Amino acid sequence: MSTAVTTYQAPALDQVRILVVGDVMLDRYWFGDVSRISPEAPVPIVRIEKREARLGGAANVARNAAALGAHAGLLGVVGADEAGTQVEQLLHGGGIHSYLKRDEAISTIIKLRVIGRQQQMLRIDFEEPPSDTVLRNKLMQYKALLADYDVIILSDYAKGSLVNVADMIAAGRAAGKVVMVDPKGDDFARYAGATVLTPNKSEFRHIAGSWSGEEQLTAKAQNLRAELKLDALLLTRSEEGMTLYTEKEVFHTPADAREVFDVSGAGDTVIATMAAMLGAGAGWNDAVQTANRAGGIVVGKLGTATVTREELFG
Fold first, then answer.
1. Considering 55, 133, 209, 266, which has the largest number of Cβ atoms within 10 A of its Cβ?
2. What sign does the CA torsion over 133, 125, 206, 267 have?
3. What is the pLDDT of residues 51-74, one digit of tens each?
4. According to the 3-state scheme, what is the secondary structure of the chain?
5. How many CB atoms within 10 Å of residue 153?
6. Which UniProt keywords apply (predicted)?
7. What is the pTM for the complete model shown?
8. Is-catalytic flag, 256?
9. Given pLDDT bands bounded at 50, 70 and 90, which one contains residue 3?
10. Do β-strands 178-182 and 151-155 pair in parallel, antiparallel, or remain unpaired?
């Protein structure tokens, strides 16, 4: 008598088409050695030994989607400068379709991190908001691209690229797309009508206020979800894991316990993984559990990093 063996079928992420729209950045890392304190001020001297550039912000979301095997496109704004060209090159190298707008009036957003002995010593930010003309052109192109993609991720870092976010959500939902938003700022009303919002604890607290227990948190989350007419709200809770609130249920998944090395970019990995899973036909709970697992893997890596399909599904 033979016994049937059930094998796990990994989702067909390579069939999913994800369009990421938002604030595009270039993350630069300068690695060095720290051996003494400056004689000029009580600060460490970092002697730079290696430099590295990675996609940041919305570009890191697209990078994460592509690393999972999904077809990823990126719509955003960079400057007509050397950093913008480097972003284009990194997108090309990562197999990401670029719809970047080059804005002559601004410089590309750069986050420069100085790392000494595997610890971040300093971060320097260079940023300017895009011009109105470029943003209007971007909205027109967004609407033209909708037909080519299954899932839309609006990655808001409050740098000015998503001033038209309400129009983008409305157009995306009207086209029958899953529209996911990683929110920022003190006004979530502009995200009304999205499929799902993915705030972290501090972002949610800023909007809804503090809570004294799980029951009060659930009430606040469900009130916000209903008020904004969302299908779901995913609250990412660091060491407490993640909680998904829908009209029918509250689904909690505990943190994937492992050593936390660097949390930068973990939210990008979570939303990209969830988008890929939903696009492949997974249910809410399965998508959240997989995204939680991906977030647990990526915090064990230095800087803005990605997770592969092999790491997720073995």
1. 55
2. positive
3. 999 999 999 999 999 999 999 999
4. CCCCCCCCCCCCHHHCEEEEEECEEEEEEEEEEEEEECCCCCCEEEEEEEEEEEEEEHHHHHHHHHHCCCEEEEECEEECCHHHHHHHHHHHHCCCEECCEEECCCCCEEEEEEEECCEEEEEEEECCCCCHHHHHHHHHHHHHHHHHCCEEEEECCCCCCCCCHHHHHHHHHHCCCEEEEECCCCCHHHHCCCCEECCEHHHHHHHHCCCCCHHHHHHHHHHHHHHCCCCEEEEECHHHCEEEEECCCEEEECCCCCCCCCCCCHHHHHHHHHHHHHHCCCCHHHHHHHHHHHHHHHCCCCCCCCCCHHHHHC
5. 28
6. Kinase, Transferase
7. 0.92
8. no
9. very low
10. parallel
Tokens of 76: 């955003």
What does the domain layout of the chain look like in residue ranges? Answer: 17-26+56-108+129-307
Residues 6+ apart with CB under 8 A from 77: 24, 100, 101, 102, 103, 106, 130, 134, 135, 138, 161
Supply the pLDDT for residue 301.
80
Given phi > 0 = left and psi -120 to 50 = alpha, else beta, which region is 297? alpha
pLDDT digits (tens, 9 = 90+) for 87-107: 999 999 999 999 999 999 999
Q: Is the pLDDT of residue 5 over 50?
A: no
Please report, as a single letter, which amino acid is at residue 17: R
Give yes or no for a contact between 18 and 272, defined as CB atoms under 8 angstroms apart: yes
CATH code of the domain occupying 17-26+56-108+129-307? 3.40.1190.20
**Residue 9 pLDDT grade (very low, low, confident, very high; cuts 50, 70, 90):** low
Catalytic position from the list 27, 150, 156, 268: 268
Which token pair is 302?
A: 């230095």
